[in-house]
Amino acid sequence: MNNDTICALATANGVGALGIIRVSGNDALSVVQKSFPAKSLVKQKSHTIHYGYFVDGEEAIDEVMVSIFLAPKSFTTENSVEIAFHGSPHIGKRILETLIKNGARMAKAGEFTLRAFINGRIDLSQAEAIADVIASENEASRKVAINQLKGGITNEISFLRTDLLNFVSLIELELDFAEEDVEFADRSALNQLLDKIELKLNSLIESFQYGNAIKNGTAVAIIGKPNAGKSTLLNALLKEERAIVSNIAGTTRDTIEEVLHIKGHAFRLIDTAGLRETVDEIEAIGVKKAKEKVENANILVYLADAATADFSEDIEMIQSLLRDDLKLIICATKIDEVSPAAYEKVEDIFRSAISQEFDFIKISAVENQNIQDLKNELSSYVEQLKSAENNVVITNQRHFEALGKSLDAVNKVKEAISFQISTELLAYELRNALEHLGEISGEVTNDEVLGNIFSKFCIGK
Ligand SMILES: Nc1nc2c(ncn2[C@@H]2O[C@H](COP(=O)(O)OP(=O)(O)OP(=O)(O)O)[C@@H](O)[C@H]2O)c(=O)[nH]1
Ligand SMILES: [Mg+2]
Fold first, then answer.
1. How many beta carbons lie within 10 A of that of residue 426, not counting itself?
2. Ligand showing the shortest atom-to-Cα distance for residue 273
3. DSSP string computed for 87-112
4. For 260-314, what is each residue's pLDDT tens digit?
5. Local structure of 100: helix, strand or coil
6. Which atom of ligand 1 is closest in space to residue 274's alpha carbon?
7. What is the pTM of this model?
8. Which of 96, 223, 275, 345 falls 20 to 30 Å from 290 in CA-CA distance?
9. Which residues line ligand 1 (CB under 6 A)?
């Protein structure tokens, strides 16, 4: 195992009250010692903090606090030192240069966490959770990431794996006694277990939709004809004058994307160019872009001006954009300008023309009427994705794929049983399923996968 001594800035690269540099590896203490004359670090206990000057030869670089974590009780399980200095990027750079002169080398992206994984302190899904915790921007993503860091996903998976492993041993025992035609593994019990596993895998796989909403936010495309009031609505939702509003049709040309947090969930609001046939080349690009945004959106908020007499174009437009997995919310806008009798009619018109289920909300973005209803509707979309029985949520594409492959493998085992296929083949399919389940926690992995995961970390993590 290669544990040469690595160092990196662990705090953000900028001015702060303090900055922290992390050092880890066999020689971490002696590397720091060369620049820390105040006391002998090897004589100190683990988990202690020491005051002194960090020096480069004769020159004092900064007044620092040095924390010591001796192997194996450290993040990486190696000898580790953290140097807290006055948060000047220049001082941080000088300290790193000196540490390298003393024999350390700069850490690669994610190398501290990689070492924690390789040395067995955390599993792969926990290492990934560290990146997610750092990236979390709201309550929902923080909670899911912390749960994963605590080993949530691994617990679910390892329980499935252990049960499967029991059967693999029994089936392999059968192979040893092949000539005697015995059956140690009760096929119907195995089938029952496979059903249970399938259920669990399915519910984990389903949780990915919610996980995705947590991790990437829910994409909400705001669509409608020119002047429907899309940009006004965006501004009202954000409570700021983000987009230009005017009574000239075709004001918005490019898409405008802003994040809104509602009840701890992120929504990516996308204001778009009003949909119409146009000879204006730039506007036409905007219209095309708007349609593309709907293709990748989770929710379509379609705005129709309540004062309009004819909604046939709106209806046609909505129908051309609909998909099964797209939630539709139709808003009648500018209700402050028309009588209640007029906008009640609008709902009827849309209801009789559009067969897919949708929510209908009457709003005035200018007078801030029922904007809260729209926010509640957005929020309930995400709430509905949450599965009641699942407290573990899959947020990671890699886990999602491994779960899908496991599910395929489990189904193949079931087929193998029902077709009374040879025990050898059954054992093979079972092992295959085990392997895919092991990918999540990193029990089964390869360098390419690891490289992929850790290269996305920043240096110092
Ligand atoms: N009375 C009233 N006027 C509104 C409301 N919402 C928008 N407007 C007005 O309608 C006009 C167009 O609003 P925008 O928000 O620019 O419309 P848009 O859909 O973004 O238009 P494009 O960007 O051109 O596609 C502006 O004059 C707004 O002040 C509303 O709820 N009530
Ligand atoms: Mg606009």
1. 24
2. 1
3. S-HHHHHHHHHHHHHTT-EEPPBTHH
4. 999 989 999 999 988 888 888 888 888 888 899 999 999 999 999 999 989 999 9
5. helix
6. 25
7. 0.74
8. 345
9. 224, 226-232, 245-247, 249-252, 273-274, 333-334, 336-337, 364-366
